[in-house]
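pipeline/complex-builder :: batch 7 item 3
reading input block
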Amino acid sequence: MANHQNHQNHPLTNGHNLSQVVVVMVPLPAQGHLNQLLHLSRLVSTYDIPVHYIAAATHNRQAKLRVHGWNPNSSTNIHFHDISVPPFPCPPPDPTAATNFPSHILPMIYATHHLRDPVREFLSELSSKARRVIVIYDSCMAAVVQDVACIQNAEAYPFHSVSAFATFLYLWEEMGKPLEEEAKRYIPDDVPSLEGCFTDDFLDFVFEQYQFKSIISGSLLNANWAIEKLYIELMERILPDKKSWAIGPFNPVELSEKKAPNDRHICLDWLDKQAPKSVIYVSFGTTIALTDKKIEELALGLEQSNQKFIWVLREADKGDVFGEVTKIELPKGYEERVRNIGIVVRDWAPQLEILGHPSTGGFLSHCGWNSCMESITMGVPIGAWPFHSDQPRNTVLITKVLKVGTVVRDWSRRDEVAVAATVAEGVKKLMASEEGNETRKRAEELGRAVRRSVAEGGGSRVEFDSFIAHITRS
Ligand SMILES: *[C@@H]1O[C@H](CO)[C@@H](O)[C@H](O)[C@H]1NC(C)=O
Ligand SMILES: *[C@@H]1O[C@H](CO)[C@@H](O)[C@H](O)[C@H]1NC(C)=O
């Protein structure tokens, strides 16, 4: 990684007065979405373009507190705007619900409609001070930014927070499968349907966003040519009239920022003492709630695998993450018993640093797109265990198309409890088998290709420069 420079040191200075163009980010306020747009804010701001990040105060606080790999306080070009919204209900997650989709955060998602008026006012104020206002919004927030249509010097760019593979499949199915013969050659036969992935309420919310398609000037993807060339190309072919830019990964690919020793998470000190590539990192993100029985089997499975592990065990996020958090109990004596092979982390874990650590050799993951991108960037193979949304399809991309992961838990068995033996077998396959070793080798190669792509002259950098040139055009 030594010679690779990040986007950050390369502002594009091609004669425009860039200060006249400003970017406004409007995230969907769930962690995986807040995080991606905050990382993107950093990348855009390094081109000397002021960025305004707009969300409810609690969500701005959450995004800043949890971001890893850089410090948002150190950027003078990113401005956070706290919008006050009326209180919304924040029920706890329900691990016994019919699907694993986090419906308990829907009241928070619906509360985003309160952002529409403040966002419109903010945009019209900015529009009189800037040559052009570029609104980058989560594709689920079209209704919030719809008034862009009335602001003459504003342009809107939805950002798709999932893989190009998943985005392509959604669009392709919605459009009635154009280019069917050809597309099918690149789509594995058994891509799962959307059954069990979402709740109807959430799909209704997503469909409501489709009516604002006319505001779109072009689309952004947290995708990378080295990872998803086929699907980025297919998407550009089915949407020929709109520009799209694949500018991922948004997360930093190098972790250069030095931390004071007392600022370093204790799990990193533990990792320092382990053998290279010997540890599996286990985390199912911020939206997944498991029953006690499922947690117990997972705990026993990790123990039986006899592989070193770091397990992040936290309650799924509520609509507001700063309330009371319930501690998840483990079988009595468990943590003491596994002391020599693993640690359980209950607070916010430095995922990017863990994945970038030389002792980490695998990631047991729900396959949310942030996690996939971070793991691929760091060259770490994935043990896939999908739960909802785009995760089952990301699993196909990771395990069948890219072959940088293996399936630990099959999506088709989502309604059953995964017993300890299944977990142990899946973990051993990834961490201690010839197939696991081959998978790891491919993951390392792909990681190198992705890191090269964001360096000077790399594919992702060229694409990013092209997006910046487009929004700053005279
Ligand atoms: C950023 O600034 C806030 C407010 O001053 C502070 O509470 C927080 O700890 C800072 N974060 C970091 C990572 O330095
Ligand atoms: C996997 O690779 C490691 C490190 O190169 C090696 O020690 C181990 O024996 C390999 N395991 C198998 C089953 O091939």
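note: The radius of gyration is 22 Å.
queue -> next item
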